[in-house]
Fold these 2 entries.
Entry 1:
Amino acid sequence: GQQLNQSPQSMFIQEGEDVSMNCTSSSIFNTWLWYKQDPGEGPVLLIALYKAGELTSNGRLTAQFGITRKDSFLNISASIPSDVGIYFCAGQLGKTSYDKVIFGPGTSLSVIP
Amino acid sequence: GAGVSQSPRYKVAKRGQDVALRCDPISGHVSLFWYQQALGQGPEFLTYFQNEAQLDKSGLPSDRFFAERPEGSVSTLKIQRTQQEDSAVYLCASSLAVTEAFFGQGTRLTVV
């Protein structure tokens, strides 16, 4: 089945630094999603990407849908303590929420004040 | 309610016991999903409902897992004869037709 890999597995950064994390897939996806999960909470959608090559921003977050449709990256600029959490990339074969979401294993982000 | 509500938040079950986990989706949301999240892993798809119809149950790990949504609103995930490997957080998500899916806080199941 489809598998997603995320790198790095974890990262420790100083407050104010920029962050970059990647996601690759063995299969093509038509929708890429980035979620953040805080401890004891469910994942919250940060950015959704629907077109190969698409670059989308949401505040300090920027994500891109790779042109091969097998990868995506997420950048966070000027990190702050509340950015701490686990970031999951996820893919969907289709473009609607009817399609099941395949999650990656996550990147754990720690921000040192 | 304002968001997806799951209950209980925490459940400890003895091995072999049956458990039932409840999900109250956002009112009016047609789609409902169940995911299983093991410690340190991403959520894994279990099953999907569109209204009361269970359209995809390909992720259910065994026939001990059963989900229902009889009136197209509240859903229950039942696990029979629980095993230690069933210990995980069970997440429910709901969505309208083509919008994002919103997740609940999950139920943390510990089988001892």
Note: Chain A has a mean pLDDT of 93.
Entry 2:
Amino acid sequence: KAGVTQTPRYLIKTRGQQVTLSCSPISGHRSVSWYQQTPGQGLQFLFEYFSETQRNKGNFPGRFSGRQFSNSRSEMNVSTLELGDSALYLCASSLGQGAFDGYTFGSGTRLTVV
Amino acid sequence: AQSVTQLGSHVSVSEGALVLLRCNYSSSVPPYLFWYVQYPNQGLQLLLKYTSAATLVKGINGFEAEFKKSETSFHLTKPSAHMSDAAEYFCAVSELGADGLTFGKGTHLIIQP
């Protein structure tokens, strides 16, 4: 059974650009959540999608957005990149809504903003 | 608001010794509690979860955790450490309807040979 797949694994962008990250959940999982991991702030919740609808959103500026497609694949977009956006972005999928079933995480996309 | 405190950013134990990683939580409602492990350059893997059933929860790789409401704690233990246990461990809490998981800062577990 394939796990959660995130692409690309590594990304280098220039300040002011925008970036799109992709996540394919485990087959049959309908919920996809995104987390940002940095050395200073740790793991922080970005947003969760379930059946193509955003259920919850963390405390991040509007530059961070996402969407989910009918096949449950999800993308997140960061516009007008800032140096502080450099982080490991983790996608997690679960069978039902929320984290209660226990997430399965992908290996992440490491974004470096220069 | 929910929060998680992990005592000790680094814990070092000898191979074969008891592993104890501490986690205290704050939640306004009965919480759901989780332990995740992260190996270098990888995502997080679920070790175990507490969802208001048995207070002693057994997980993968020989780990277990006990929910103690009176102490607001959910410490992770393993009787005998193995070199392969060296990793970063995260405790997390979730409340029904809350915005995703709230993670602790993590504890780096070092296993001495």
Note: Chain A has no helices and eleven strands.
